[in-house]
UniProtKB/TrEMBL annotation:
Cytochrome c domain segment(s): 391-555
Functional description taken from the UniProt entry: DNA ligase that catalyzes the formation of phosphodiester linkages between 5'-phosphoryl and 3'-hydroxyl groups in double-stranded DNA using NAD as a coenzyme and as the energy source for the reaction. It is essential for DNA replication and repair of damaged DNA.
Residues covered by the BRCT domain: 608-687
UniProt family annotation: Belongs to the NAD-dependent DNA ligase family. LigA subfamily.
Protein name: DNA ligase
Family annotation (Gene3D superfamilies): 5' to 3' exonuclease, C-terminal subdomain, 6.20.10.30, BRCT domain, DNA ligase/mRNA capping enzyme, Helix hairpin bin, Nucleic acid-binding proteins
């Protein structure tokens, strides 16, 4: 291939990856591979400047703006950072700094490079007025309402802020991120709903910040580490001063930064954090080294794409080679069969890895792995271990190498697996008789977000099934004390060999029965989620409960009626229809009805408490300490008030809960609607 052809190819490829990454929050290749290709293009362009294309990704910041949000032109451009994976290049960069500063002394501030999305926040008269994405560097998306859901970002600066020298007009920049815990929680939910989990916290954060529904954004507990202060006036002389002032003024500045005076010290900082960073609450991908003194920064200046006074050192994704001992298969609640690599234990990013996901049959094919091979394991997005390739060098000496072939039959019930068109997963169609599917459905039913019977956790369901006491979740409601007392089983962890005995003693049994009884009070929406209709997650469960009010109406709903519900698409609607066509499912629902579960929403007024809200219309936003949505609506009705679904001038009160939707608040403010807190509402009804 000629240089010209290669330049064209790389330009097209990289533009494509940029488009995917910034527009759709999808990584088709790893960051490291991306950076390698970009370096190659840079090098070729330097050798052949005449061949450099106008749309080259080396010219500009990679991001874009969207049509979904208003566009804001940045007062100061938001650039990228030049990056490197090697110490050698850091030393070269340091040499260039020395040259420009003609050997005058300088200091570096070393910071962790948080892996989320760049945000710019503008404060005017002390108020947070704007939150904007980096976009293409010149202009970004106005996502103020979403940014305002970040609790660590003051909506108004403290009185101290001005004294600290921040002034009333300034811009701050930071990395908006999704805490690892939230990322894991969302993925658990997605898996429970039979959907694809998200690849990594960065992409999840990027996707969430650009959502239209800020109530959903608020539920995801996004956060932001602030790392830059900008203003018209010279408030600070150094970066250090600004960080200290921001922190004192209540901004979320991570304490991990450090001031050093040589590149060697910066390299020590890099080494120090290479493992320690995994204990931080969010994903990180490197270290940023910045000149401390603002005057020196000015001398050093910028390229079109990044400042010359800073550089990012990126950690290579940690990859190790270990032996593939075998492949096991897990059958999920929905019957999907996932292959899992069993590995000789190896330490990656501070944790011992013994298993890695192989995703599906296509992935096994792509990797071409054999049992006995040495394989490279990597932590993708720093979280889920995966196998990237066979370590041919080490594997070639192995005598025992047996090609991995995806199973043809269900590892649990031996039914022949099927694959639906357009789907990657092989599925066991024996929905009714396949043990892990049955167990999975019951475990789904008892989880916290559904019927919340946590006294049945930790392998107890398995024992009940094995003793023939339950066949589905509805059977839980006919269990008796005598049936349960004395049951026991020793669970042995396959990997560690550690044994754990679960036994049903008196106290345990009492707790279990109590938990089962209490679950009868769980609202209809949770029951709907718990019965496990495919694609009906927690939120969809709530929307369906709100809309249809009881199980019969839902059961009789037509396809058209179903897709009229917010959040319900064709796939979900069809799945609901299929569910209620099945005789066994109908019998299951019937059993739940007999057991006394909540199969209708409770906002029918059962009892009149008073008339304190007579003639008033009320609406709420956010979540509440003492009420679920249904309970709050019931409370309004029980006190003579009218709950309405939309915000208007005529509304008497908007009850504002925690993580209230900022767009709703802004609208209410504009309309002049009176807002009250949960406490004020309670005072009102008990008056
Ligand atoms: N996998 C893919 O398909 C794909 C595609 C496009 C880009 N990428 C990745 O994204 C990179 C380009 O993204 P980029 O331009 O945002 O660069 P970058 O993420 O490498 O570095 C710049 C960004 O770092 C962030 N940052 C985090 N902590 C910081 C701190 N303490 N101080 C200053 N900044 C901090 C800021 O948001 C800043 O905009 C590429 O190098 C590549 O690794 C990957
Ligand atoms: Zn099966």
């Amino acid at each position: 291939m000629t240089s010209s052809e290669r330049i064209n190819q790389l330009t097209d490829q990289l533009n494509h990856y940029n488009q995917k990454y910034y527009q759709e929050a999808i990584s088709e290749i790893s960051d490291q591979e991306f950076d390698l290709l970009l370096k190659e293009l840079e090098k070729l362009e330097n050798e052949h400047p005449d061949l450099k294309r106008e749309d080259s990704p080396t010219h500009r910041v990679g991001g874009t703006i969207t049509k979904e949000f208003p566009t804001v032109v940045h007062k100061y451009p938001m650039l990228s950072l030049s990056n490197t994976y090697s110490e050698e290049e850091l030393l070269e960069w340091d040499e260039r700094i020395k040259k420009v500063l003609t050997d005058r002394p300088y200091e570096y501030i070393c910071e962790i490079k948080f892996d989320g999305i760049s945000l710019s926040m503008t404060y005017e008269d002390g108020y947070l007025r704007k939150g904007v994405t980096r976009g293409d560097g010149t202009q970004g998306d106005d996502i103020t309402t979403n940014v305002k859901t970040i609790r660590s970002l003051p909506l108004k600066t403290s009185k101290q802020a001005e004294k600290l020298g921040l002034g009333a007009q300034f811009e701050i920049r930071g990395e908006g991120f999704m805490p690892t815990k939230v990322f894991e929680r969302i993925n658990e939910d997605l898996i429970a709903e039979g959907k694809e989990p998200l690849a990594n916290p960065r992409n999840s954060a990027a996707g969430t910040f650009k959502m239209q529904d800020s109530a959903v954004v608020a539920s995801r507990d996004l956060d932001c580490y602030v790392y830059q202060y900008l203003s018209e006036d010279d408030h600070f002389k150094t970066h250090e001063e600004s960080l200290l002032a921001l922190k004192k003024a209540g901004f979320n500045v991570s304490d991990s930064w450090k001031k050093v005076s040589t590149i060697e010290e910066a390299i020590s900082y890099i080494n120090e954090w290479s493992d320690k960073r995994h204990s931080l609450p969010c994903a990180t991908d490197g270290i940023v080294i910045k000149i401390n003194d603002y005057a020196q920064r000015e001398e050093l200046g910028f390229t079109a794409k990044s400042p010359r006074w800073a550089i990012a050192y990126k950690y290579k994704a940690e990859s190790k080679s270990t032996k593939l001992l075998g492949v096991t298969y897990q059958v999920g609640r929905t019957g999907a069969v996932t292959p899992v690599a069993e590995l000789e234990p190896v330490i990656l990013s501070m944790t011992t890895v013994k298993r890695a996901t192989l995703h599906n049959a296509d992935e096994i094919e792509r990797l071409g792995i054999s049992i006995g091979d040495y394989v490279f394991v990597e932590k993708a997005g720093e979280i889920i271990p995966k196998i990237t390739a066979v370590d041919e060098q080490r594997s070639s000496n192995e005598l025992f190498r047996q090609k991995v072939e995806f199973v043809k039959n269900c590892p649990a019930c031996h039914t022949e697996l099927i694959r639906n068109e357009g789907e990657a997963a092989w599925v066991c169609p024996n929905e009714k008789g396949c043990p892990p599917q049955i167990k999975g459905r019951i475990e789904h039913f008892i989880q916290r977000k559904a019927l919340d019977i946590d006294s049945l956790g930790e392998g107890k369901i398995e024992i009940l099934i094995e003793n023939g006491l339950i066949e589905d979740a509805a059977d839980l409601y006919s269990l008796t004390f005598d049936q349960l007392l004395g049951l026991e089983k020793v669970h042995v962890d396959e990997l560690t060999g550690k044994a754990r005995k679960v036994s049903f003693k008196e106290k345990t049994v009492e707790n279990i029965l109590k938990g089962i009884e209490a679950s009868k009070n769980q609202p209809f929406s949770k029951v709907l989620f718990g019965i496990g209709i495919r694609f009906v997650g927690q939120t969809t469960g709530e929307k369906l409960a709100d809309y249809f009010m009881n199980i019969e109406t839902l059961q009789n709903a037509t396809f058209e009626q179903l897709i009229a519900v917010p959040d319900v698409g064709e796939k979900v609607a069809q799945s609901i229809i299929d569910f209620f066509k099945d005789e066994d499912n109908l019998r299951f629902i019937e059993k739940l009805k007999v057991a006394g579960l909540q199969l209708e929403a409770q906002n029918v007024v059962k009892e009149v408490e008073g008339n304190a809200l007579e003639g008033m219309t009320l609406l709420y936003t956010g979540t509440f300490k003492n009420y679920s949505r249904e309970e709050l609506e019931q409370k309004i009705a029980a006190n003579g008030g009218k709950f309405v679904k939309s915000l208007s001038k005529k509304l008497t009160y908007l009850i504002v809960g925690e993580s209230a939707g900022p767009s709703k608040l802004a609208k209410a403010e504009k309309l002049g609607v009176k807002m009250i807190s949960e406490e004020e509402f309670e005072a009102l009804v008990s008056a």
